[in-house]
Amino acid sequence: MTNHLVLEVGTALVIIALAAVLAGKLKFSIIPFLIILGMLVGPHIPVFGIIDLSFVNSYEIIEFLGRIGVLFLLFYLGLEFSVKKLERSGKNIVVGGSIYIAINFSLGLLYGVVNGFPLEETLIIAGIITFSSSAIVAKVLVDLKRTGNKETELILGIIMFEDIVLAVYLSIVSGMILGGSSSWFDTLISIGISLGYILLFFVIARKATPILNKLLNITSNEIFILVIFAALFFIAGFSETIHVAEAIGALLIGLVFSETEHSERIEHLVVPFRDFFGAIFFFSFGLSIDPSTLGDAVWLVLGAVIITIFGNFTAGLIAGRRAKLSYKASSNIGLTIVSRGEFSIILANLAVMGSLMEVIKPFAALYVLILAILGPMLTKESKRIYLLLDKIFKWSAKEEKKKLLVKQMKQQEQNHSG
C-alpha cells in the first residue's frame, strides 16, 4: 500500500481542487467545503481499488503539509501587520479592538465555566469564541465590494488588533498547556518566557531593520526564497522548543520581515504557498474529524454560535458608535467579523497537542463550519438585518433627531453672532 503513497496524496489534492472549484462557482469561502470534504472521507470510507479515500497511509504526510499551511497563514498575517501601522492606526482601533476582545472573551469564559469545563479547556473555548477569521473577513469585504465603506477601516483595525492579542494569548495558553508546568510558579515562568520572546521580536522589528535590509538584498529569487523559508521554518521550530506555538513563531518572523523594504517581494512569493498549503491544512483538519463524534458537540456548538453572533453584533455596535459611525455602519462591523476559521482550528489543535478533553476538536470543527457559512451570509444580508432591527430600536429616527438638533444649534449660533 505504501507504493501508492504519492497517489493517495494526489487524490487528496484532487479533492481539495474540486472543493476550490465548487467554492469559486458559488462565490463562497473555501474553508467549509474543505472541512466537509475532509470529514466525508477518511478511515471510515472503504477502499476503491487503487483509489484509497481512507488516507490511512498518507495521513501523517497530509497532516504535516497542513502544519506547513498554518505556518504560511500566520507568516503572511505577520507580513500584513507592522508595528508602524499599529502606531498610526489611532485611538479608535485600540478602543474598538479592546471592546471587541473584552465582550467576546468574557462571553467565552462564562460559557466555558457554565458548561463545567476545567481551566485549560475553558481558556481554549474562550479563545475559539473570541478570535475571528482574518482570511474569511478579508475575502468577504473584497467579494461584496465594501473595501471603501466607512466602517471597513475599523473592521480591518479590529482584525489587526486581534492578531496582536492572539499572539500574546496563544503564547500564554501554549505555555500553560504545553509547558508541562506543575505549579503556578512554573506556569508564570513559561508565560514570562513566551512574552519575553514576543517582545524580543518586536524590538528586532524596530531596531534591526537596516541590517535585515542589507542581508535580504538578494538578486536571485531562488536564493531569496530559500533564505526566507529557512528563517521561517527554523524560527517556527525553535519557538516550539521553548513552548511557544510554532504558528506564533511564524507570525513573529513575518512581523519582523514586514518592517523591511523587501516585505512586498516576500508577500508576492509567499501567497501561492499560503493558498496551497493553507487549503491542505483545512482539509487535513476535516480529515481528522470522525463525523459520528459531532453529535456529542451539537448543543454545545449551537449555544456558542448564538453567543458569538450576539457578542459580535454588540461589540461592533459599541465600537462603531464610539468611533462616531452611524448605527448602520456600526451594525455592519459586528455582522462582518462574525466568521471563525483558522485561529479557532489552531487553538483546537493546541488542545489536542495538550491532551485536553476530546470534545474540543469536534466542537471547533462544527463551530467553524457553521460560522464560516453563516458569517458571509450575515454580511451579505446586513442591510436587511439593519432595517429589521431599526424598526424595533428606531435608530434612524434617533440619528435624524440628533442631526436636526445639531442643525438648530448651529443656526442659533449664527443668529446670535449676527
TrEMBL record:
Example of a GO biological process term: proton transmembrane transport
Any Pfam family the entry gives: Na_H_Exchanger
Domain of life from the UniProt record: Bacteria
Cell location: Membrane
GO cellular component term of the entry, any: membrane
PANTHER family tied to this protein: K(+)_H(+) ANTIPORTER SUBUNIT KHTU, SODIUM/HYDROGEN EXCHANGER FAMILY/TRKA DOMAIN PROTEIN
Protein name according to UniProt: Cation:proton antiporter
Species this chain originates from: Peribacillus faecalis
